[in-house]
Design goal:
heterodimer; A: 76% helix; B: 505 residues; two-stranded antiparallel sheet; 16 helices
């Protein structure tokens, strides 16, 4: 009985950590929100630079929180982690790709001879801002709307087909991103991130134009 | 339900190999260069000379360009365990996930907070704090490497854990056994010190190029001194740690060791090859090359007379040396799997009488668990040729680096480093050799342990996710294109910055 209590306490404890990380992650997505607003708020190169310098000092915090969130989820709820990531393959892969392009963009966008050009890297940042937020929202949405998957731990003893969890659809998570309810949560995360982004600009950038435009939006 | 097809497993392996190889283009430089930058930064802090300041700034800028793409390629690897190896993730979550989470919480935050101070701190923060930030970045990235290598070490030699029959998962019993397992420790030391070699070669390579062009002479000469001291120490230590790795290999992964030396029939006084050509994969005698008698026995068991098992011994068994054949191990593995199945069913039916019995059978046969999934014993043999050639090329390059750094240091001391142009040209190209050696090391470690995701416990075919191979194929090419484009961008930016050179002082 003792171990049972300890186990459920441990689960609650882990749940608190993972939720906290998720909450911090959403809060820190003002970086993505800000990136998605890049072309709406800035009207010239200087303003664009101001905006990106401002989010550019914080992007690593969001990024590392995502990495930590993944590691903590892996460690604490492996069955959940493996089912969701291995099942909703495409949603997670697209999220990751959008963060891969973010990680290089801040460093490379203004460097000389950067092969793709500043504009491409800026577009990468906008893509990350839009896709990253919507898809993370959609991925979390699947926890609420439910997904068609199957877990059978006995499978491990089945030599021909030992994988214990599998998605029941053949689109491997692509359908989850297109589900209207998941998308709604995705869009709310997206707009929440944009609001946070705007508030961040107002507080962080000392430029009248940007502040008034942010306030108006 | 349709069975897992092998092309899915192969594509998943290809994708992991691709992303890992790309990631490893950038990591060694981060690990090595960070210390060189921190050292230069300290010299600047102590002398306050413009010279050291410009050196620090120049190498720091290149460090930053490389760091960004290292981070970008790294995030994929972490999540790929979940997306492509979900069964593996489920079975080992609390062992493998724990170091990964610690990496995130501890080292990664250390890195990402101090990296901003390091890059933007010039004239903004206290000089001492700024210098310390450089050290924190260096330690932070190396601690990151520690945790991920601990995780990898555990896959190669699973210790400190117990298989829980009720949950059908591996659970950690001793955190310290996992962290301090000899495999993990040696792997960490060997890998990290080899990364320092790459960092040093990077500095040597660019400095040699400046010297060949008669630019930034003083800057380049000084940088070469710093790099060759650092590189020589690292190269010597890498060899030492690599030798220790061979010792743990002989115990935990005899098949990998046999593949590395292309040893088919085991022998006493086993021979170590310097280099040569394998003419026939399954026969010891069909080998032409330079060799050292008894050296392999000595390296692997610290005893020149020791018996080193070959591939054929491990497959067909060897009664004299008490080595089980693959067939016997496959049988035992199947028994373990059946016992697990029986245990689950007995538990469901409330048949507590047979539970104890089944548990005993399972525990007895658990060391062979993974063999139960093997359909054809030939699967148990890794790619011998690839492992052999990778290993030997790596070792030869390692020896070359020791000699090369020693020469650079010696000639720098006599102020003759520019005397021979061909040495400088070699210096420019040595970086490429460093990358090759570094990647080959991983190929030895990872190809040599196939088919195992976890040594003897879980073959890769059982570790996979249930996906369609076309999905994985698509993401494979997505990564291939994206990473290649980013690599080109990185190299172009890097070359432009190098051509610009440091600010003259």
């Amino acid at each position: 009985m003792m171990t049972l209590i300890a186990y459920s306490t441990l689960q609650a404890y882990w749940w608190i950590i993972v939720s906290l990380l998720a909450a911090i992650l959403v809060f820190l997505m003002f970086v993505q929100g800000g990136q998605s607003l890049l072309y709406f708020i800035s009207k010239n190169e200087i303003e664009k630079t101001l905006i990106l310098n401002s989010t550019g000092r914080k992007w690593e915090l969001t990024f590392t929180t995502l990495v930590t969130f993944g590691g903590a989820f892996f460690a604490s709820f492996p069955l959940f982690y493996s089912t969701s990531f291995g099942g909703a393959y495409w949603v997670w892969m697209l999220i990751l790709l959008s963060f891969v392009i973010q990680a290089v963009s801040y460093e490379y966008r203004t460097k000389l001879n950067n092969f793709l050009g500043t504009k491409t890297f800026d577009i990468f940042l906008v893509i990350n801002g839009v896709l990253g937020t919507i898809l993370i929202g959609a991925a979390v949405g699947t926890f609420f709307t439910g997904s068609a998957f199957e877990v059978n731990k006995l499978n491990i003893t089945d030599i021909g087909n030992p994988v214990i969890s599998q998605w029941k659809t053949n689109t491997h998570g692509l359908e989850a991103a297109l589900n209207i309810f998941n998308l709604l949560l995705g869009l709310s995360v997206f707009f929440l991130a944009r609001v946070l982004g705007l508030l961040y600009f107002i507080n962080n950038i000392d430029n009248k134009e940007i502040v008034t435009r942010s306030a108006k939006d | 339900m349709e069975a897992i097809d092998t092309s899915l497993v192969d594509w998943s392996r290809a994708q992991f190999a691709l992303t890992a190889i790309y990631h490893w283009f950038f990591v060694p430089l981060t690990l090595g260069l960070s210390f060189i930058v921190a050292f230069m930064h300290t010299m600047y802090y102590r002398t306050q000379s413009e010279e050291w300041k410009e050196m620090t700034k120049f190498w720091m800028k290149l460090f930053g360009i490389n760091f960004a793409i290292g981070v970008a390629t790294g995030i994929i690897l972490e999540f790929e365990f979940g997306t492509n190896w979900s069964n593996y993730s489920w079975i080992v979550g609390d062992i493998f996930g724990a170091p990964l989470a610690i990496e995130g919480i501890f080292a990664f935050f250390l890195e990402s907070t101090f990296i901003a101070v390091m890059f933007f701190g010039w004239n903004r923060v206290n000089k001492k704090f700024h210098m310390l930030a450089s050290w924190f970045v260096a330690f932070g990235s190396n601690i990151s490497a520690l945790w991920i290598l601990v995780a990898n070490g555990w896959m190669q030699s699973p210790t400190g854990t117990e298989f829980n029959m009720d949950t059908a998962r591996n659970e950690m019993v001793s955190f310290f056994d996992v962290v301090l397992s000899p495999t993990a420790v040696h792997k960490f030391l060997h890998t990290v010190s080899s990364a320092y070699i790459v960092g040093a070669l990077f500095v040597v390579s660019i400095s040699s190029w400046f010297l060949l062009r008669n630019r930034h002479i003083l800057f380049a000469k000084k940088s070469i001194v710093v790099a060759s001291v650092f590189g020589l120490l690292a190269a010597l230590f890498t060899a030492f740690a690599g030798d220790n790795s061979a010792y743990t290999l002989a115990k935990d992964q005899p098949m990998k060791l046999a593949a590395m030396e292309a040893l088919m029939d085991g022998e006493r006084n086993a021979t170590l090859y310097a280099f040569g050509v394998i003419n026939d994969e399954r026969n010891n005698d069909n080998f032409t090359g330079i060799s050292f008698p008894s050296m392999l026995s000595l390296l692997a068991f610290r005893d020149p007379n020791a018996f080193v098992p070959g591939v054929n011994d491990l497959i067909n068994g060897n009664d004299e040396h008490k080595i089980l054949s693959a067939d016997e191990r496959i049988e035992k593995g199947k028994t373990a799997i059946q016992a697990l199945k029986g245990y689950k069913e007995a538990k469901q039916n409330g048949d507590s009488a047979s539970l104890e019995n089944l548990k005993e059978t399972f525990t007895e046969n658990y060391p062979h668990f993974g063999y139960g999934f093997i359909k054809d014993k030939e699967e148990l043999i890794p790619n011998v040729k690839l492992t052999f050639y990778s290993f030997h090329t790596m070792v030869l390059l390692g020896l070359f680096f020791i000699a090369f750094f020693a020469w650079l240091l010696y000639s720098s001391m006599k102020n003759q480093v520019t005397k021979y142009r061909w040495i400088l040209k070699l210096g420019v190209w040595s970086l490429l050799l460093g990358y090759i050696a570094s990647e080959l090391g991983w190929i030895v470690a990872e190809v040599g342990r196939q088919p195992w995701a976890i040594q003897d416990i879980l073959p890769v075919g059982v570790a996979t996710s249930h996906l369609s191979s076309s999905s994985v194929q698509t993401t494979f090419f997505l990564f291939l294109i994206l990473f290649t484009v980013l690599l080109i961008a990185e190299v172009k930016i890097m070359l432009t910055q190098i051509k610009k050179g440091p600010k003259p002082f």
